Amino acid sequence: MPILTALYRYPVKSIHSETLMHSAIDPSGLPDDRAWLIADHSGRFMTGRDWPQMVRIRADVDAGALTLNAPGMPTLRVARDTFDQAHPAQVWKDEFGAWHGPVAADRWLSDFLGTEARLLYTGQESQRRVKHRPDLPLSFADRYPLLLIGESSRRQLSDWAGQDFAMARFRPNLVVDDAVPFAEDGWQRIRIGDVVLRMVKPCERCVFTTVDPDTGEKSSDQEPLRTLARRRKGEGGVLFGQHALAESAGHIEVGMPVEILD
For the segment 54-84, what is each residue's pLDDT rounded down to a tens digit? Predict the structure, then answer.
């Protein structure tokens, strides 16, 4: 039976992953996953596609604050309740309201990235909604709250390309092992612990996969995107991983078995 082997969240969109051993989960995803956004002055999202050094930023989150660290930068701690200025936000074509915080946080990000940037927060509940699900809040994630990838799928991709790619390149929330490569493509509903998850659609991949998740450097050979384009091209683009929605709230832990329901 497949098992859950890794669990990640990304408190700020496009930064380095935070490894979790267990987490609450509900239809809006993992708590504080992509709850903050680095944006330009207008509120339009900035990501590691264009600013790959974002992956060198690391975050810790607690009930009261977000703490950021990056090479050559002092530690920045920003209290949640200081995000009190309404500010427009945009992720892809979605335009919605968010919250802007202290100028000191903007200056910290701008100094590290070498360009003007602002730090935005969804607030206690995001004003954005999942497409076709107006009842379901969505963070600053691209399209859906969760992304699941099979570890054997990563190994197969590495074999095809002749080099080992870290799972962190693909920015999943849930990693499952002990299944055949790309088994997740055929799953419709699974259960982890007491939580049922429904696969929504394959994840379309972009140039961000060519960014080293530790150094922020782009691969000179355009891998693994080049191999994915040869091996995993679908109608929607280059595909790797499955977007998912939790059907209820619960708790999941690394090591839990994954039951395939449909």
Answer: 999 999 999 999 999 999 999 999 999 999 9
Kindly report whether the peptide bond that precedes residue 224 is cis, defined as omega within 30 degrees of 0.
Answer: yes
CB 54, CB 86: distance < 8 Å: no
Structure tokens at 205: 């991949």
Quote the Cα angle for 133-11-6, to 5°.
85
Task: Indicate the pLDDT class of residue 179, thresholds 50, 70 and 90.
Answer: very high
Judgement on whether residues 172 and 238 belong to the same structural domain of the protein: yes
Q: If you search the block for the tokens 């493509």, which residue do you land on? A: 185
Give Cβ neighbours of residue 23 (< 8 Å, ≥ 6 apart): 7, 9, 30, 31, 251, 252
β-sheet bridge partners, residue 147: 243
Number of domains forming the structure of the chain: 2
pLDDT attached to residue 235: 84
Residue that is written with structure tokens 């709250």 in the block: 145
Q: Alpha carbon 146 to chain centroid distance? A: 8
Q: Cβ atoms within 10 A of the Cβ of 130, count? A: 21
Let me know whether 132 and 146 are in one domain. no
Q: Which domain holds residue 105?
A: 36-137
pLDDT tops 90 at residue 132: no
Same domain flag for 8 and 45? no
